[in-house]
């Protein structure tokens, strides 16, 4: 090899075309959005945790106070304890449930799949309120706890198990359906017993799924605020501590410190999960034959019984919320009424909160989908600009690692800072929209990337050779082909904007009260039934949007099946 | 077609492409003339697609220059170059009809609507799909999709047509048919064409000139016949067609020693000193057998180990001439009726000097 000639030859500096310029500027704009939406607020939060109430830098003083005040630092241990217990329980139940759906021949599988997803439609406050009606001081079956107290770790664990069940079950379902039937056949031919096959084939093939499910459950639970808020009682966990410090005691510095304590485990779990998922992709690439279960009456019946029990519990939690929202005076007068839906008489902003929530969800879905999808397109399909794209990709992943409460508090510090020119956004609808889009950015971004990766990588090359500007091809080809994914993303954003409490709880104003926050405030004021009623409004809206999404998707699929390969 | 006094249409000068530490192309220089059909041929990873993408501006070279019609296009983005391209995947827009796909490039040229319609109809006629215009790509067969991609690439009348493994995704019958069709079409409209392929048969049947590449460098440039009959290196000889390698030592410029036998050569290339280890290459079909071997030089009798029947001919595997691998000899079915080619027997053969190429031994 004659390297001498190559090293002396001048490096060709590619000319940047008009398209490249437009794409880079657009990418910069989205990067600016993400900097303002996540990076700067996080910095403001971090800075705040090193300051005293007057804004002077005090080093680690706040952290030392925090760690040396047992009343504060206990919640770290509490959080880890309930989170780990709930994670183990939910993984166990979700594993069997998913196993039944993939490995048995029990009937009504799609019904059970649907039931398992019901908790997604509820803000996490709502199942906790249901638990109160079941096991609280006036609960109908409170004696089932054998005298134990619902308020505290027991209630938190029960509520969290319910809340994260659909997420964990879905991950397990996916990783189980990736199993290769050929391995099972080989195992059977070699004479391995069912139990040996389970431990040598089933478990190893889904190890990444299990680890991923663990981290997802862990993160969701430790950062969840709704359940411990309602049934936590005197048992402090990190998430409720942040809220108490800020809303109860107006101690913003300590709020920032507790936020950091919450951010660190969540960020770790997130990073661990990303590493594991990257490995799972490598596992996936082999062409496997999907596993087909064979009927086994005994096993199928046991699985059906298990799923029926779980399904029954899920539906009764929902039913209890619905029921308690329409009875006159729990538990003394069970005649039906709609008076709890007369929100005008309650704290929390009345019906306006509900319509504000709809507005927030709609804006989030519209702008969020546009920003996320276009941003993902730029990251995936632009030419050159490698460093910029890598940085952008990294920025898109950050929101996932940040718990909602932490994000919300960070917004308070950043946007409410007297020197911030964006301060006019504080206490407005736009800041709620920005915060909510950012909060759910990562998952939406990843589904957009997945959809874009399935497109022929040469579309952009062809359109350049045909001298078509990139935005023309984006509009005429990319968007139509990706319409199902675009709808998925907008539905995901809409439903989450309806149900989320954590990030927005610090950001709403009297003009922008939200339904989910109203649930919180009415529950706080002891109005459980109206809180359940508002919660049911959220559930019904979310369910309605899901239904609409399903109809739209079906319609598009049938209208475009001429060119969609299936 | 390639003539020295005509300015080349495309001129590639000392192009090098690096991906980090990996050198994908090393100092490539090449000229392509107007209306020529050139194939970049080589095994996967040889750099042929990288070179094509550099010509298109999709992955611009690290250093070196590319001129098209005398214009320096080295640093230009694809949108400022003049070419049409067909990919292995065709990359047809799935949600647009065949007509809309073909019209896509014309719309960007601000051509009037009726003109576009007329041109699209023309192109669909040209590629033999006059009544498929309203269908979507997914409703067409692979071969038809390939033709649509071709029509789309040709719609704007580019000066250069780039084909990136256009036939690899098709089954053998369709491939053979389209090979001929594309060549016809190219001849008819006279567009300068570069095609990347790993399929030697494709290159031999379609190209005016073949550029054989390996490990990021050009091994040989020549007409299919030159490449086949006078391969410039053992790599080319091995990659194109089948060849026998015989280890030998050069005794005089016209003879080499193999084991205990001396073989006479027509002429060894200049620059190889006597006494050097060399590799002799001869194609299985060039080995003379039976009566044709009578009186020829380099005669020998070799035991037959194994016979493969390959349709129109038998391939005999025999003892090696000296050391090394055994010899492969192709005997046509017709000739096989005259001589005995049963396994365990022997065969009398001659290695004609004019078909033996001599290379410095590698490794």
Mind explaining what this structure looks like?
The complex is a heterodimer of chains A (566) and B (363). With 566 residues, chain A is mainly alpha-helical. Chain A has two domains: 16-45 and 344-566, MetI-like (MetI-like fold); 59-331, Orthogonal Bundle (MetI-like fold). Chain A is 71% helix and 1% strand. Chain A is built from 24 helices and two strands. Chain A has helices at 3-8, 18-48, 61-68, 70-103, 109-116, 125-135, 153-177, 181-189, 194-205, 207-223, 226-231, 238-248, 252-284, 297-324, 350-381, 386-401, 404-415, 429-439, 441-453, 459-465, 470-481, 483-499, 515-524, 528-559; strands at 327-329, 333-336. Chain A has a two-stranded antiparallel ribbon with strand order 1-2. In chain A, strand 1 (327-329) and strand 2 (333-336) form a beta hairpin. Chain A is globular. The two termini of chain A are 49 Å apart. Residues 1-6 of chain A have low confidence and may be disordered. Chain B is α+β, with helices and mostly antiparallel strands and 363 residues long. Helices cover 24% and strands 32% of the residues of chain B. In chain B, the strands form four sheets. In chain B, strands 6-7-8-3-9-10 form a six-stranded mixed β-sheet, sandwiched between helices. The longest helix of chain B is centred in the middle third of the chain and has 18 residues, at 172-189. Chain B starts with 9 loop residues before the first strand and ends with a strand. The model of chain B has no long low-confidence stretch (mean pLDDT 90).
Mean pLDDT of chain A comes to 88
Instruction: Output the number of helix runs of chain B.
Output: 9
- Look at the structure and give the mean pLDDT of chain B: 90
CATH superfamily of the largest domain in chain A: MetI-like
Low-confidence runs of chain B: none
In terms of DSSP E residues, the strand content of chain A is: under 5%
Let me know the largest β-sheet of chain A. 2 strands, antiparallel
Shape of chain A: globular
Structural class of chain B: alpha+beta
Cα separation of the termini of chain B: 37 Å
Level of helix content of chain B?
10-25%
Order of helices and strands of chain A: HHHHHHHHHHHHHHEEHHHHHHHHHH
The shape of chain B, in one word, is elongated
């Amino acid at each position: 090899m004659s390297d001498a000639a190559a090293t002396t030859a001048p490096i060709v500096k590619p000319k940047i075309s008009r398209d490249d310029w437009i794409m880079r500027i657009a990418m910069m704009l989205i990067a600016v959005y993400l900097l303002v939406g996540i990076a700067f607020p996080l910095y403001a939060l971090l800075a705040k945790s090193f300051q005293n109430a007057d804004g002077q830098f005090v080093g680690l003083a706040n952290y030392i106070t925090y760690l040396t005040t047992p009343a504060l630092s206990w919640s770290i241990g509490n959080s880890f304890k309930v989170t780990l217990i709930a994670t183990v329980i939910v993984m166990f139940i979700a594993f069997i449930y998913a196993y039944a759906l993939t490995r048995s021949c029990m009937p009504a599988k799609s019904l059970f799949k649907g039931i398992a997803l019901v908790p997604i439609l509820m803000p996490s406050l709502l199942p906790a309120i249901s638990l109160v009606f079941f096991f609280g001081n006036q609960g109908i079956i409170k004696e089932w706890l054998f005298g134990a107290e619902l308020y505290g770790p027991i209630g938190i664990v029960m509520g969290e198990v319910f809340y994260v069940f659909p997420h964990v079950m879905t991950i397990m379902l996916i990783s189980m359906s990736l199993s290769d039937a050929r391995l099972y056949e080989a195992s059977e031919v070699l004479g391995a017993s069912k139990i040996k096959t389970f431990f040598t084939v089933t478990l190893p093939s889904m190890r990444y799924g299990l680890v991923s499910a663990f981290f997802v459950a862990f993160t969701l639970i430790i950062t969840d605020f709704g359940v411990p808020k309602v049934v936590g009682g005197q048992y402090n966990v990190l998430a409720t501590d942040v809220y108490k410090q800020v809303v109860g005691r107006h101690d913003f510095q300590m709020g920032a410190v507790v936020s950091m304590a919450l951010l660190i485990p969540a960020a770790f779990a997130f990073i661990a999960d990303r590493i594991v998922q990257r490995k799972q992709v490598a596992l996936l690439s082999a062409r496997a034959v999907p596993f087909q279960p064979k009927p086994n009456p005994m096993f199928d019946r046991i699985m059906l019984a298990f799923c029926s029990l779980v399904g029954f519990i899920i539906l009764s939690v929902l039913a209890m919320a619905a029921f308690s929202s329409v009875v006159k005076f729990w538990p003394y007068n069970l005649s039906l009424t709609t008076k709890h839906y007369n929100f005008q008489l309650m704290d929390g902003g009345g019906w306006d909160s509900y319509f504000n929530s709809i507005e927030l969800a709609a804006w989030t879905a519209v702008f969020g989908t546009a920003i996320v999808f276009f941003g993902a397109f730029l990251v995936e399909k632009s030419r050159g600009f490698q460093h910029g794209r890598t940085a952008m990709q990294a920025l898109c992943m950050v929101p996932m690692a940040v718990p909602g409460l932490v994000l919300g508090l960070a917004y308070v510090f950043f946007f409410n800072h007297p020197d911030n020119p964006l301060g006019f956004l504080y206490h407005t609808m736009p800041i709620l929209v920005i915060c909510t889009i950012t909060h759910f950015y990562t998952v939406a971004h990843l589904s957009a990337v997945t959809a874009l990766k399935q497109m022929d990588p040469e579309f952009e090359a062809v359109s350049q050779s045909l001298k078509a500007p990139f935005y023309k091809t984006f509009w005429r080809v990319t968007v139509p082909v990706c319409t199902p994914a675009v709808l998925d993303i907008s539905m995901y954003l809409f439903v989450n904007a309806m149900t989320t409490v954590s990030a927005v709880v610090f950001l709403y104003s009297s003009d922008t009260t939200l339904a989910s926050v109203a649930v919180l405030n009415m529950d706080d004021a002891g109005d459980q039934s109206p809180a359940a009623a508002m919660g049911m409004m959220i559930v019904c809206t979310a369910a309605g949007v899901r239904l609409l999404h399903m109809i739209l998707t079906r319609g598009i699929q049938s209208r475009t099946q001429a060119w969609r390969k299936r | 077609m390639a003539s020295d006094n005509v300015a080349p249409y495309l001129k590639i000068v000392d192009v090098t492409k690096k991906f980090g530490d990996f050198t994908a192309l090393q100092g490539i220089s090449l000229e392509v003339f107007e209306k020529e059909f050139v194939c970049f041929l080589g095994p996967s990873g040889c750099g042929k697609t990288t070179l094509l993408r550099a010509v298109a501006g999709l992955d611009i070279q690290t250093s070196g220059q590319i001129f098209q019609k005398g214009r320096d296009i080295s640093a230009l983005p694809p949108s400022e170059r003049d070419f049409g391209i067909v990919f292995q995947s065709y990359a047809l827009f799935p949600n647009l009809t065949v007509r809309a796909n073909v019209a896509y490039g014309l719309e960007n040229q601000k051509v009037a609507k009726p003109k576009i319609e007329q041109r699209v109809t023309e192109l669909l006629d040209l590629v033999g799909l006059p009544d498929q215009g309203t269908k979507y790509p997914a409703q067409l067969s692979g071969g038809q999709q390939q033709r649509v991609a071709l029509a789309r690439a040709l719609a704007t009348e580019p000066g250069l047509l780039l084909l990136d493994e256009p036939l690899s995704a098709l089954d053998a019958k369709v491939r053979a048919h389209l090979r001929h069709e594309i060549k016809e079409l190219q001849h008819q409209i006279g567009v300068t064409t570069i095609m990347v392929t790993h399929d030697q048969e494709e290159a031999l049947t379609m190209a005016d000139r073949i550029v054989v590449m390996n490990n990021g460098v050009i091994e040989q440039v020549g007409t299919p016949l030159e490449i086949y009959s006078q391969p410039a290196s053992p790599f080319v000889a091995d990659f194109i067609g089948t060849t026998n390698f015989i280890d030998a030592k050069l005794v005089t410029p016209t003879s080499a020693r193999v084991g205990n036998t001396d073989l006479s050569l027509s002429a060894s290339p200049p620059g190889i000193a006597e006494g050097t280890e060399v590799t002799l290459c001869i194609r299985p079909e060039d080995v003379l057998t039976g009566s044709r071997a009578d009186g020829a030089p380099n005669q020998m009798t070799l035991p037959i180990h194994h016979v493969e029947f390959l349709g129109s001919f038998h391939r005999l595997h025999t003892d090696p001439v000296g050391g090394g691998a055994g010899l492969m000899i192709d005997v046509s079915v017709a000739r096989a009726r005259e001589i005995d080619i049963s396994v365990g027997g022997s065969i009398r053969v001659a290695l004609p000097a004019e078909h033996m190429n001599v290379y410095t031994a590698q490794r």
